[in-house]
Amino acid sequence: MIRRAILIHGGGPTAVLNASLAGLALELRRAGHWSLLGARFGFAGLLAEDFLDLDAPSETLLEQIALAPGSALGSSRHALDEAGYEQAVRILLQHGITTAFLNGGNGTMRAARHLAETAGGRLQVIGIPKTIDNDIPGTDHTPGYGSVARFFAHAVRDAGEDNRSLPSPVMVVETLGRDTGWVTAATALARHSPEDAPHLIYLPEQKVSLEAICNDVERVFRRLGRCVIAVCEGQRDENGHPFGADVQ
Fold first, then answer.
1. 145 and 134 in contact (C-beta within 8 Å)?
2. Most exposed residue of 16, 25, 150, 230, measured as fewest CB within 10 angstroms of its CB?
3. For residues 129 and 139, is the Cβ–Cβ distance under 8 A?
4. How many of the other CB atoms lie within 10 Å of CB of 212?
5. Residue 248 has what pLDDT?
6. Whether this model's pTM surpasses 0.90
C-alpha cells in the first residue's frame, strides 16, 4: 500500500530547505511505498491546493536542488487561524495524504503541533527543524545554524582585522538570533588570541545595563586602544526591555 505524504515549507528561504527537501524525497524513495507531494509556497499553497509531484524529479536533479540557494518549493509566513487549520486538515485528507512533513523554524514547529492537534489522530505530522537561530527545543543544533555560525565567525574576525589596522575605535556587530545567543556566541569561533575580535560578547539570555556595557568597553579600550562588540538583535537591558525600544 502506497502512503501519500506532503512537504510544507515555512519561514525564510535558505539552501537548508532545499537540502531537506532532497533528503526527504530520496529517503522516502529508498524506503519504498511512499508518494510525496510538495505544497508550493507553504501553507498558502496548501490552502490553494497548489501541489508539485516530488516523485517526478530524478535523483540527479534532487542532488542538484540540495546544493541550490533559495527554496525550490517556495516558502511562506502565512499564519493559519482555527478555520485555516481545519481547512488544511480537510484538504489533506481529501487528497489521501496521511503524513505531513513541516520544514521550518520554531513558528513552523508550533504550526505542526497545532495541525496535529486539529487532525486529532487522523494525520501524522512530522517537523523537520530549519532555523539559523538554533532555538528549537529538543535539538542539539538545527540545520541552518552551522552556516550562519561560520558566516558571523568570519565576519567578526574580518571586522576585527579592519579595527586593528585602522582603529574605529569602538565597533558594534549586531547578530541575528532573536532571543537566543547561539549565533552571537559563534562570533568567537575564529578568535585565536585574547586580542582578537570580538572582545566583548553579550547574549540575550543575560540582561545587561548600558552602564555595564560602557564600563566593559572602557576596560577593553584602555588595554587595547580599540574594542569590537558582538551583540544579539534581541539583547535586553537590566529591566528586560529591548535596547533601542525607547528610540522614536
1. yes
2. 150
3. yes
4. 13
5. 53
6. no
Cα 208 versus chain centre, distance: 25
Judge whether 216 counts as a catalytic residue.
no
To the nearest 10 degrees (0 to 180), the angle between helices 82-94 and 106-119 is 70
- Give the pLDDT score at 15: 76
Q: How far are the Cα atoms of 166, 189, 198, 228 from residue 220, in angstroms, in the given order?
A: 16, 19, 11, 9
Give the C-alpha distances (Å, rounded to integers) separating 228 from 31, 158, 194, 199, 223.
Answer: 51, 11, 12, 5, 13
Q: Enumerate residue ranges in the chain where pLDDT < 70.
A: 245-248
> In angstroms, rounded to a whole number, what is the distance separating the alpha carbons of residues 155 and 173?
9
- Bond prior to 198 in cis (omega within 30° of 0): yes
Q: Which of 55, 133, 237, 246 is catalytic?
A: 133
Taking the C-alpha atoms of residue 246 and residue 248, their distance in angstroms, rounded to an integer, is 6
The distance from CA 165 to its chain's CA centroid, rounded to whole angstroms, is 34
The candidate with the shortest Cα–Cα distance to 227, out of 159, 154, 175, 138, is 159
> What sign does the dihedral 43-46-50-53 (CA atoms) show?
positive
The whole-number pLDDT of residue 246 equals 65
DSSP letters spanning 70-133: S-TT--------HHHHHHHHHHHHHTT--EEEEEESHHHHHHHHHHHHHHTTSSEEEEEE--TT
